[in-house]
Amino acid sequence: MSTNSSIPLVDLTLWRSGSTEERAALAATVDRALIESGFLMVSGHGVPPALRAGIRDAAREFFTLADKEPYTTAVGGRGWIPPGKEANGYLLGGEELPPDLKETFVSGYEFRSGDADVDAEWFMPNVWPTEVPALQELCVIYADAMRRLAAELLELLATAAGLEPTWFTDRCMQSPHSFNINRYPALNRTGPVAEGQYRIAPHTDFGTITILDREAGYGGLQVCTREGEWIDAPVIPDAYTINIGDLMARWTGDRWTSTMHRVLPPSPDAPDEELISLIFFFEANLEQLIESFPPPLGRAHDYQPVTAGDYLRSRYAAISVP
User: Fold this and answer.
1) Which of 153, 223, 231, 312 is the most exposed place for a label (fewest CB within 10 A)?
2) Residue ranges per domain, the chain?
3) Which of 117, 116, 81, 123 is CA-nearest to residue 102?
4) Fe2OG dioxygenase domain: which residues (predicted)?
5) What is residue 204's predicted lDDT score, i.e. its pLDDT?
6) What span, in angstroms and rounded, lies between the C-alpha atoms of 206 and 45?
7) pTM for this one?
């Protein structure tokens, strides 16, 4: 089953238990999707809908707290990123677009690398709201499920690229992750939208792989096609939206492309529409040197090697509003 020619729906149950021919066909579909659009949809992942619904309920309870200030953090940190503190439009260059119309609760991987400075920057303790105790338990369960799903997807991607199945997982499983819960407030809360303002401005993701659980709405996700046309990303019940980031595109020598996408501003056609997205960003190991695949696996390029940590650090700084 396909959503359109460039953003297909793939069923992970075929990857887990299909025949050799079915698995090969699935890997070929994924390779083609990441070449053509950088996006695909995934069903058969096994993550319970009730878990995602529970996170949204707890997140809404948090976002409506009268005082969230004690949980405030900067972009790249853990806790609450208030409205007006992130501007993905800064990445476009030229004229700066207004800040994104959203607020975010962020949690991440609590891991001990053995280096106190690394842990303080990338694996700091999570900050959980005491007023909403359910949020911590649900997010921890969800993040564990997402890391397992990310590992499975990376094995599929490695096979799609003609590599050993563990090629990416061998280089990613001690990495940080960021689990962002984005609240896109309704128009009746934001008031008039500034010119050029979006819930999230046009951008590409920074890292390795993104796993997105979305709600359908007027102010939803759009993807820019290779022809420069903005199209609505499909919403399929119980399917995840998957896309690769700049680091994976760089790693593959632009065999696969990180694609520009945006989240539309709240619409006058739905002034009460509030959406909550669950976004899991999975990365490469921080010290992993990202050296681009040469042709014929990759394309001709002039990328210089860079560590994952250095690259991600530069991107977080670029979208932060002072």
Assistant:
1) 231
2) 9-319
3) 81
4) 175-284
5) 93
6) 24
7) 0.94
Residue type present at position 313: R
Burial pattern 53-88, b for ≥16 Cβ within 10 A else e, equals ebbbebbeebbeeeebeebebebbbbbbbeeebbbb
Question: What contacts 56, CB < 8 A, 6 or more positions away?
Answer: 276, 278
Tokens 């689990």 found at: 179
CATH architecture entry for 9-319: Sandwich (2.60)
Could you state, in chain order, the average pLDDT of each consecutive group of 10 residues for the chain (322 residues)?
69 94 95 94 97 98 97 94 88 73 96 91 95 98 98 97 96 96 93 89 93 91 92 92 96 94 91 95 96 92 92 84 72
Cis before 305 (ω within 30)? no
Using an 8 Å Cβ cutoff, are 68 and 181 in contact?
no
C-alpha count within 13 angstroms, C-beta hemisphere, residue 275? 25
Contact between 269 and 287 under an 8 Å Cβ cutoff? The reply is: no
List 53's β-bridge partners, or say none: none
C-alpha dist (Å) from residue 253 to 244, 292, 297 = 13, 5, 8
Residue appearing with tokens 């096994």: 46
Query: Which DSSP helix (H) or strand (E) runs through 177?
Result: strand 177-184
3-class DSSP state of 118: helix
Q: Is 143 helix (H, G, I), strand (E, B) or coil?
A: helix
Which DSSP string do the residues of 70-112 spell out, in sequence order? GGB--TTSSEEE-TTSB-GGGGG-SSPPPPPS-EEEEEE----
Rounded Cα distance, 302 and 291, in Å: 11
DSSP code at position 30: H
Q: What is the per-residue pLDDT for 26?
A: 96
